[in-house]
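Async update (no meeting this week)

Hi team, since we skipped the sync, here's where things stand on the single-chain job. The sequence we agreed to prioritize is pasted below, unchanged from the tracker. I ran it this morning and attached the output directly underneath so nobody has to dig for it. Comments welcome in thread, and please keep replies under the output.
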Amino acid sequence: MRRFLVLVVGSLLLGASSLWFLQQESGYILFSFNQTTVEMTIWVGLSLYLISTSVIIWLFLTGKWLLAAGGFKQWWMRRNSQRYVNQTMHGLVLFADEDWQKATDILADSALKSNMPDVNLLFAAKAAAESHQLQKAEELLVRLKTDYPNANLLVDKTFAQMLVREGKYDQALDILQPLSIERPSDSGVLRLLVEIYHLTENWSKLQNLLSDVRRFQAINKIDLDTLELEVYVKLFQKFQLTAGFTDQEKRDQVGDLWELIPRKLRQNTDLLCAYFDALQQVNQQDKLADLLCKSIASQWNIELVRRLGETTTKIPEKYLMTVEKWIPHHPHDTILLTTAGNICCQLQFWGKAHSYFSSAMALQATPDLYLKLADVLTQMGDFMGSQAMCREGLLLANRKR
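Output:
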């Protein structure tokens, strides 16, 4: 309140002083222009001068503000900026619409004045790669890498991805392998390595990569589980015995490979079948039969039952007893009955084999069953019956064609 009173009193005193000075006859100023003359006291002239100077300075500062900080210049800059943003957006829309050539041209041309030049260059390079202009894409990426060193990792991954699309896997690996050492947790690098090893069917390299892929969640769980199963199945399917190894060393090879399999996958049918094929290569038929029986007992599986019937063992009577225990629980299973008949043939129990094959035939006749019965009848000395079975089997096979 006091400050306000002081300001009011000061203003009144200043105003009174000004009026007093203006009334003094200390001199005058005379302006004459043609027939017009203007006469005033020196104090009035001085006041007009100060007022006009202040107005001019104010107009100058106002104009400067309009042209710079908050006015015309800002408006002009925003207008240009919006125009370049619109160009970038248009280029990205063309990219999404897969109009690769136009997207490349617009994004590359507007990169210099864009608010997001790195985005322009990156998507221009991707568009060029999509239209198989790999050299153009590489030039744009080099430009991005030069202007924005912080984008080096992204550039390398993008270029490696382009090389993969072109089938240049070795060149892509030359880029990715150093990156995987420098940044082992990078999901993009891991995904690209997985893609390359999968496309080149390098299952051992891919198996070594699985733990990192799972640890750093580079692939979603469902896809990773599918990939993991495929990798181990392929490892067994592509399994090759090392030349010059002893029988025991070959068996150890298969055993070592099986030990790599995560326990959660060991009951998978496809994987078990691939493992059993590898066991057959090293003549471990009895171990194979034991594992088949154990797996079937754990979870009933027709494919494993069929394989058990095709396995030749040293003690087939042991497995016949096991199979016959399953028959009361699956009396209408043609595969199980056929398996029982096959094991009887190994034991030369021709009568039982004939009975099992005939029971399976009654449920579902197949050319294969006719041939099996023909072989059994031959062993039993019934050559006429054997010929009749062969004819029936051939007729059925012709009808199924």
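Quick observations from my side:
Residues 76-150 form one domain.
The first strand starts at residue 28 and ends at 33.
Reply here if anything looks off.
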